[in-house]
Design brief:
Helix content: under 10%
Radius of gyration: 16 Å
CATH class of one domain: Mainly Beta
Number of helices: 0
Strand order of the largest sheet: 3-4-5
Number of strands: 14
Order of helices and strands: EEEEEEEEEEEEEE
Structural class: mainly beta
CATH architecture of one domain: Beta Barrel
Shape: globular
Strand content: 35-45%
């Protein structure tokens, strides 16, 4: 995993295969960790990735990024204009984000979801377990899991959809 300390430096720990626990120096705003690669949003709004010989290739360049989320062999970045760009090993799935303006994003194993500026949820990618079938409504937050997703409604309820193998509905979600 990785986190950002109080001075903005990225600190990583845990399993290491390809220098993914050796972040670059600098001040960062956001960080996301996957199995063998990491990405962060620098203070100047650049996307910076390290580790994993393949997964950082094709990551968007430039500035204006506000969030990054990593899935299994891919990543998605949210720009300050609301557009989302995904990159990485997309050969077995379609992870091209729809051309909608988003407030926030979250990635699962092979799908991603975003909260639109209209407070709706839109998901894309693999749908073998119904993880793209977000219920209509007004939402505050969305979090994509491995093969499912959950969201917080404007009314304060948590709603989940997708693979129910972990029985998330039994825990009041």
């Amino acid at each position: 995993g990785c986190g950002i300390d109080k001075i903005g430096a990225v600190r990583c720990w845990g399993h290491e295969e390809d220098q993914e626990n050796q972040p670059p120096d600098g001040v960062f705003r956001r960080v996301s960790a996957s199995w063998v690669h990491r990405c962060a949003i620098a203070e100047d709004t650049r996307l910076v990735c390290w580790g994993g010989r393949f997964y950082g290739h094709g990551a968007p360049s430039g500035t204006g990024f506000i969030d990054v989320e990593l899935g299994s062999g891919y990543g998605c970045v949210l720009a300050n204009d609301g557009r989302v760009t995904c990159w990485g090993d997309l050969s077995s799935r379609s992870l091209e984000a729809p051309p909608i303006e988003f407030r926030s994003i979250s990635t699962g194993h092979d799908h991603a979801c975003g909260l639109t500026r209209a407070a709706e949820i839109v998901c894309w990618g693999a749908n073998r377990d119904g993880q793209l079938d977000a219920p209509a409504g007004e939402y505050i937050e969305v979090d994509a899991g491995v093969y499912f997703s959950c969201a917080l409604t404007a009314g304060g309820d948590v709603i989940c959809w997708g693979d129910d193998e972990e029985a998330f509905t039994e825990y009041g979600a």
